[in-house]
Design a protein that fits this description.
This protein is an alpha+beta fold. The chain is 29% helix and 27% strand. Strands 2-1-4-5-6-7 form a six-stranded antiparallel beta sheet, covered by helices on one side. Strands 8-15-16-3-17-18 form a six-stranded mixed beta sheet, with helices on both faces.
Length: 364
C-alpha cells in the first residue's frame, strides 16, 4: 500500500486572484495571514476545487462558483487557462483547464509525474471531469498507486455553518462514520464510532472540550432505530453535575465549532493534509489558545494549512510557520519570512503584535 504524502510545493496559475504562485514551499504548519480580500480564502478555495475535482464533481463546483468566468483570474477574457502542479514526496500531479462556451471547464491536460527520473504519465485530455480516480481503479500503475491516494487524502474542513438548519445539528445515519466530513455534518456518528472503537481518542476530545467549555461534562450519543430499520443519531451533551441531557441546538456556535475543530485535529486516522479557513470564528480567546496548541500537536501527524485574522492564534506559532498574503498589482502574492530578519523585534514583541504594527506585512 502506498504511503500518502503531504504537499511539499505548489504551483497555481490563473485561479481567482492567484495569477502566479510558482513552486511555493509548504511545511508542516502553514498559517495564512493578511487583510480582508487579499486572497487567503481563494487559496483555501483552490483546495476545495481540487477535492471536488478528484471526486468527479468539478463542473458542479464551477457552476456553484458562478461559472468559469468567476474562477479564472479577472475572467476568461483576461485569463485563458488555469494550470496547477502539486509536488509531494517523489511524485507530482498537474492539470490545465480552459473555459467552455457554456460556463464550464475542460481539461486541456491531466498528468502524473515521478520526479526522480522525470517520468510523466498523461491521463487524458479533452475530458470535463478528472479521470485520476478512474485510472487508479481501472488501470493501476506504479505512479497512480502513489498519486491518487495522496491527492484524495487532502481534506478541507469548514465549520462556519452552525445555523439551526446545518447538517451537524440534524440526525444522521449511524453508518456515516467512516471519516469526519468536511462540514462535520456527521459529527454525531463519527464521535459515536470513536467512543466504540477508539475510546482513548474519544476521551482526548472530551478532555479538550472540557478545557474550552468548563461546564461541559460529556457527549450523549444514543442511536435510535427508525421504522425502516435504519439507525440514526443526533449530537447531545450533559453539563457537569447534572443528568439533564442538552440538545446540540443548546450549544453556542463557538462551542459547536470548537468541538468540530478538536475532533478534526485529534482524529486517529487523519488526512495527510487538512485545510481550514478562519477556525477562530466565534471562539473565546482561551479557546483560541487551545486551538493553537491543538494545531501544533496535530502537525506532528498531519500537515495543517489554515487562514486566520486572529492575533492570539498567531502568538501560538513561529515566524517560519506564517505565509504573508498581500495584493500587489491587483493579484495575490504569498511570501514566507525568516526569523533572523526580525530578531530585534521578537525580543520585545509577540508575532501577533508585530503583525498589528505591520512589521510583517499583510496589514490586518
Amino acid at each position: 500500500m502506498a504511503v500518502k504524502k503531504k504537499i511539499d510545493k505548489l504551483t497555481i496559475r490563473g485561479f481567482k486572484s492567484i495569477k502566479l504562485l510558482d513552486k511555493f514551499p509548504l511545511g508542516d504548519i502553514n498559517i495564512l495571514i493578511g487583510a480582508n480580500g487579499v486572497g487567503k480564502s481563494n487559496f483555501i478555495s483552490y483546495f476545495s476545487m481540487l477535492a471536488e475535482m478528484v471526486d468527479g464533481r468539478l463542473q458542479v463546483w464551477v457552476r456553484k462558483q458562478g461559472g468559469a468566468n468567476r474562477i479564472f483570474t479577472y475572467g476568461v477574457n483576461n485569463t485563458k487557462q488555469i494550470s496547477s502542479a502539486i509536488y509531494f514526496g517523489k511524485n507530482a500531479y498537474g492539470f490545465m483547464l480552459q473555459p467552455t462556451d457554456d460556463g464550464g471547464v475542460v481539461f486541456v491536460n491531466e498528468a502524473m509525474f515521478y520526479t526522480v527520473n522525470e517520468k510523466r504519465e498523461d491521463i487524458s485530455k479533452g475530458h470535463i471531469e478528472s479521470l485520476l480516480k478512474k485510472k487508479y481503479k481501472e488501470n493501476y500503475s506504479y505512479i497512480t498507486g502513489y498519486v491518487y491516494p495522496a491527492v484524495a487524502s487532502w481534506r478541507v474542513f469548514h465549520f462556519h455553518d452552525t445555523s439551526n438548519t446545518s447538517q451537524m445539528k440534524q440526525e444522521q445515519g449511524l453508518q456515516n462514520s467512516q471519516y469526519l466530513y468536511g462540514d462535520a455534518s456527521n459529527i454525531a456518528p463519527y464521535l459515536y464510532k470513536l467512543y466504540q472503537q477508539e475510546n482513548s481518542v474519544y476521551q482526548q476530545i472530551r478532555d479538550v472540550v472540557q478545557l474550552a467549555i468548563p461546564f461541559f461534562d460529556d457527549f450523549v450519543l444514543e442511536p435510535r432505530a427508525l421504522s425502516s430499520g435504519e439507525q440514526v443519531i443526533r449530537l447531545a451533551w450533559r453539563q457537569t453535575d447534572s443528568e439533564y441531557v442538552f440538545d446540540v441546538s443548546q450549544l453556542s456556535d463557538g462551542s459547536l465549532r470548537f468541538i468540530c475543530l478538536a475532533t478534526a485535529l485529534l482524529q486517529p486516522d487523519p488526512p495527510t493534509t487538512i485545510i481550514i479557513d478562519e477556525p477562530e470564528l466565534g471562539l473565546h480567546p482561551y479557546a483560541i489558545t487551545l486551538l493553537g496548541a491543538l494545531v501544533k500537536s496535530a502537525s506532528t501527524r498531519m500537515q495543517v494549512i489554515l487562514s486566520t485574522q486572529s492575533v492570539p492564534l498567531l502568538n501560538e506559532f513561529e515566524l517560519e510557520d506564517l505565509i504573508i498574503v498581500e495584493r500587489e498589482d491587483s493579484v495575490s502574492t504569498f511570501k514566507r519570512l525568516d526569523s533572523k530578519d526580525f530578531e530585534l523585534w521578537l525580543a520585545d514583541y509577540t508575532i501577533g503584535e508585530l503583525w498589528e504594527k505591520n512589521v510583517l506585512g499583510g496589514i490586518p
